[in-house]
Structure formats: structure tokens, C-alpha cells
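Re: the multi-chain job from yesterday

Posting the exact lines I submitted so nobody has to dig through the queue logs.
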Amino acid sequence: MCLGVPGKIVSIDDMVGVVDFWGVKRDVAMHIVDEPVAVGDYVLVHVGFAIRRIPEEEIAETLSFFEQMAAEDLEGLSPPGAPPKPGTEPEALP
Amino acid sequence: MTQATPRRLEFRDVAQGKAMRARLSHAVAQAGRPVTLMHVCGSHEQAMARYGLRASFPKDLHVQMGPGCPVCVTDAPEIDACIALAARGLRVLTYGDMLRVPGRAMSLEDARAGGARVEVVYGATQAAQIARASSDPVVFFATGFETTAVATAALLLDDPPDNLVILSAHKWVPAAMEIVAQTPESKIEGFLAAGHAATITGYGIFERFVERYRVPVVVGGFEPLDILSALVLLVEQVSAGKAEVVNAFPRCVSREGNKKALSALWRVFDMADGEWRGIARIPSGNLALKPEFAKWDARERFGVELAEAPPVEERASAAECLCGKIMSGIAEPNDCPLFGKACRPDAPIGACMVSSEGACRIWHEHGLGLR
Ligand code: SF4
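And the result, C-alpha cells for all chains:
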């Protein structure tokens, strides 16, 4: 019941849009989406209602946020002279 | 945009995931003690299980599932009220996950097996379509958190048919977070808030909470990198002794939220005190229809009382169910002696094993915590 799924609007007729969830198309109500939407926009959908237009620039920002977070040097995060206590080193990654 | 939009907005880069897990381990090590966090969303639990994130968490990081399963927190008397309406011969529409959740005497599925007219719908819009195609009263069992309540509200503001009757069991999650934060046994040092709920409410509603309880709240999305980055931001705050609201899902969440959706929500619903199954009576934890919508309100129209079903003796095993403690953050599924033994997905005893968003069911299906 409680799942938000992103998809792309493929057509729109007044308050009902057809949203493509990468292969599965469904009718989605547009009554409460936060901004005006158009064909080609990404939206977050919850129980048949679009609840947010996901702007392209925010998608790009998310990508760069992750890149930056992953790239930050772990060494730089430790206070000088405070190596992690034995047994608390980052675990081996699969 | 030069970078191709990832398919389905999936953020699953393996190398970034590894780097973030290393950073998470590092942050936990910096804390120098075990850190316990809570998420409040079945979708977060599902995503963590599906992508195997739990197995990769540092051993001193505990992420507990709180009261984030709408099906699990729907109280037995609320289900009984729905069954009572069906028993009067009314056609009842429900979200599929509610079917097998036990009321005090039986579930909606049992009632259907006994001849009651219980049907599954995908959402509020479909319920309205069914009502429009019929002349008889049709009851929609409106369950779920604020995200789902917004759909019910939109339906009621869009010229609903007169024969559509709403039995609201909608619940307001922020109220339940307060209860968890006040629980004396709680070891929760930070909350991972649900991204889609915050899409509606905005992250601003957590600001007072953070001030009051001095615990950080980070709003996170549902892709693996969304979850990992949100956990990193939580643990780093815990280690640094900080308590702030951070939005780690900015592609969907703003400070104010979706104003249109919120205005629909509060035009239709009032906050009301309500029982959350197994947890507590939560002040402002339920969403009740406003008097202006009495015409569509099952409680007004049919005088259905939550106490209507005769109290029955609970099955002895149900008394051992720890579902309420799990959702309060003071137990985990494998603390329950029935987990994976008497209580399994094919023979559920508590609501947490019934629902696909329940912690017991998710753990069982992914082989987590089984001895
Ligand atoms: S395993 Fe079953 S009985 Fe035990 S807490 Fe979970 S739902 Fe309840």
C-alpha cells in the first residue's frame, strides 16, 4: 500500500495521465501533484496519485551528491592521531 | 542534461555503494559505541532486505523498524468495524494487504469466505469508479498513512458519488514518532524518515521534533544509495553529538512539502486520538473525516462503532506476539519465540507477519534473523 514509485508521463488528459513505469503503463491521477506537469516529466506516484514532479536538474544533483559523498576521502574524515580502535575498522566489503 | 537519466531513477552504483558503506563503518567507529537508529517505513525495510544492505551494515549499527507498516498498525477493532459493515450485507472495498490482517474474531478474508462481499481495490480512484457504476452503498476501507490519506482526500474533494462510504482508519506517522521518542526503553539515537511521506508533509515538520527530543532526523529515499547516504548522515550526526533535520531526498522532498496535497489533506481530515495496534493510544495519531464530510463517513452514516464486534478471547498464541514491541523499537523479529516457527508467512499470527510491509514478513522472506 505504502510505496512511492517514479515513472514518466507518456500522455495526459485533464486530470488523468498515463505513466510509464518502465514497461508497465498505468492511469495516474494528477489532482495533487505539486507543480504543473507535461508529457515527458518524471513523477513520483503513490496509490494512483502523482505526488511530486521530479525535476531533471534534481536528478542530476542527486547524482553529483552521491558522487561527492562516495569520493570524500575517509582519511580526511578522521581527526588527526585518532585511528579507529582495534576491531572497529571498516569491515571488508563484499 | 548530458548525463543519461538512469533507468527508473535507479541509484545503484556499486562502487559508490562500497564507498558509502566504508564511510558508514567509519562513522560508527567514530561513535565508539553501538548506534541504534530507527526507520519508520515498510518500504525502507523492503529495500534494505532486497538489496542486502543489512548484511553489509557494520556490526555496531542497529537499524530497527518502527511503526512504519500501515497494515500492521491498523487496530483490530478498526478491522472489526469493517467486518461489521460487511456483515450487514454492504459491499466493502479494501487495499489487498488488509485482507488477512486479524481482527479480534476474524480477518476480512475469513469474512469473505463466509459470504461477505469484500473486494480488493488498487486505490481510492478505483473505489470511486466502482461506486459510480453501482446504485448501492459501497464502503471503502481507507487505511494507510498520510501519503495514502491524501489520495482519499483528493477523492472526496472531486465530486464523490453519494453512495461511496468511507471508513477511515488513516494514520499520521509523525505522531507515532513522538511516542517512540518518549518510550523510556528506547535506544533510538536517530530517525530515518520516509521519503514519500515527507514528499507530502515536507521535512520542516521534523524541526520541532528534533529540538524537543535532541535526536537527528534524516529524510531518505528508497534506492540503495539513498538509504546508505541517509544512514551515513545520521550516524555522522550521532558521532558528532549533533541533532538536525537533513534532507537526503531533495529530488522529491522540500521543506514545505506538497502544499496542494497538504491543503487537500487538512480540508478533509482532522487529527484524532487513535489506537495503533500493539503500540499505544496515540494522541493525534489518527485521521478522522471532518464533520462536513459526514455524508460519506461510515461512522456517521451507519453509526458503526469500533466496539461493535463482540470482544472475543484472543488466540493464546496471539498474546505472545511481539509486533507492538517491534514497532516501538524495543524488539526485533527474532526476539519473538514464534518467529519462523508457529508464525510464518503461510500461517501468520501477528500483523507484522501478514503484511508485505511488516518487519517479520520481510525478515522471514529474506531469511534474516532465522535460527
Ligand atoms: S513473528 Fe509473528 S507472532 Fe512474532 S512478533 Fe512477528 S508477527 Fe508477532
